[in-house]
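task queued by scheduler; priority normal; single chain, no ligands, no partner chains; default sampling; output format set to structure tokens
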Amino acid sequence: MTARDWGLIGVLSLLWGGSFFCVEIAVQGLPALAIVWLRVALAAVFLAAAMTLLRTPFPKVADWRVFAVMGLFNNVLPYSLFVIAQGQITGGLASILNATTPLFTVIVAHLATKDERITPAKAAGLALGFGGVIVMMAGADMQGEVLAKLMCLAAALSYGLAGVWGRRFKRMGIAPLTTAFGQVTASAVILLPVMIWFDRPWTLGWPGFPVAAAVVGIASLSTALAYLIYFKVLASAGATNLSIVTFLIPVSAVALGAVFLGERLLPHHIAGFALIALGLAAIDGRLFKQRVKGSNIKRL
């Protein structure tokens, strides 16, 4: 990856880390599906305005099927699962479980592509990463916290599927802004009848300014702006490299939760995250290559 890609990944980690914090606030005043629908629907409005100002072409009719699949795996399923899970666990812990996305992406990419295969280093990384998941699952209530953690893992798998599916947008020649608009719009359409059926929005009252501000923040920054960056990096760096952003997300998510919400992580959560981090380092391979290079230089 280039320095520009790394910089964009850093910004993306801040935007998505903040989404876990905002969800912690939003769930205090709105039901889960209403939060997710407002997130994608408002993001679609923001992106439509940006496309109009920048004179970016809107999606073609033939492309909406591809956007619907992307929206389902990249928005509808993971967003809903994470919001529901955060009714049981903190945003910091949810963001750490979200860091397993690269592990699932490696497996999906190996099965679905020819150019992103599992190497011995990636296999070792997968073993370490899923070992970390097992550590974090230990000692939890099987009827409550474990179910919430499993929802987070299912969401991470969904993100992995979306990352590999999204590779096709580069081949199709669709601009990142158009892609971002297409997937959140498709997501809003898919989720609308489900949200109406379960949440009965006409019965909901005004949730309060903090909740409303959190939802607007998720939609504008953590969704609309974040997906502009997401599809740019996906096109230039690939699904596996892009998924490394999930390693950085917990830093901002945990920090915001600790400072503003008084949340804290337990020792086995930290130990599990350390194993996931080691696994991601093995999958990425850069640290090992740098150590080998440095060792060769010393020998010279």
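post-processing summary
- The first helix runs from residue 3 to 26.
- Residues 3-201+209-299 form one domain.
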